[in-house]
Amino acid sequence: MTLTEYREAAALSIPELARKANVDDQSVRNAESGGRIQARVARSIAQALSEILGQTIRVTDIEGLNVRM
Which of 10, 32, 37, 53 could disulfide-link to 41, CB 3.0 to 4.6 Å? Predict the structure, then answer.
């Protein structure tokens, strides 16, 4: 699943996911549009989605993320 699909499955807006992941809105927008994001941001987003959806979601599970290592 893509980040957008995970976010929509969690019934969250971009600002809501950003708040829960403790990142800025633009980072989530960049991630969803295929822009490069830091590994820390990717991990924070994956952790927030895991908690909300009640399943383990790893960064590598999110299709299309462009993570800068």
Answer: 37
